[in-house]
């Protein structure tokens, strides 16, 4: 196996084992792999991690602002939720976006993030991608620098999201 494939495999195993941590018992007494948390607490955590990512990029530009949202997750019928915060940085040159990606690669580990994968995303345009997991909160992140080679504008898309959880504020 070449070293890139090995790194990807090790990263996937590491992320999978982190996400499986924290099993709890469900109300019916069955083992549940989902942690029970208040949705507002998770949303605040994701918002904070998302702001941290922007700070590490250290690049001024236009930013989309949809804010975090809650959605169902694929959890085998356990009623889980996930909080996602997608946003984009655009309106600046590719040189500045490249610097933002370099800042992430250098700064994320200093802030408790493990970079699971970094490199091209396999697309025709060879967009740069960073996949990372925060070691304390298990928050995950997918960042892609789309250079605009296909006549679109250069942009960095960011998706910061929680692991699946049972929202205690939704339980009656």
Characterise the protein shown here.
30% of the residues lie in helices and 32% in strands. The chain is α+β, with helices and mostly antiparallel strands and 172 residues long. The strands form three sheets. Strands 4, 5, 6, 7, 8, 9 and 10 form a seven-stranded antiparallel beta sheet that branches. A two-stranded antiparallel sheet has the order 1-2. Strand 5 (69-72) and strand 6 (81-90) form a beta hairpin. The longest helix is centred in the N-terminal third of the chain and has 19 residues, at 39-57. The N and C termini lie far apart (51 Å). The model is unreliable at 1-31 (pLDDT under 50).
| Distance separating the two termini | 51 Å
What is the ordering of alpha helices and beta strands? HEEEHEEEHEEEEE
* Poorly predicted runs: 1-31
Helix/strand/pairing class, anyone? alpha+beta
Question: How helix-rich are the residues, as a percent range?
Answer: 25-40%
| Shape field | elongated
Average pLDDT rating: 81
Q: Roughly what fraction of the amino acids lie in strands?
A: 25-35%
Question: How many helices?
Answer: 3
What is the strand tally?
11
Rg for CA atoms: 17 Å
The main β sheet shows up as:
7 strands, antiparallel
Task: Annotate the secondary structure layout.
Elements: H1 3-20, E1 24-25, E2 31-32, E3 35-37, H2 39-57, E4 62-63, E5 69-72, E6 81-90, H3 94-107, E7 113-120, E8 128-134, E9 140-146, E10 155-161, E11 165-167
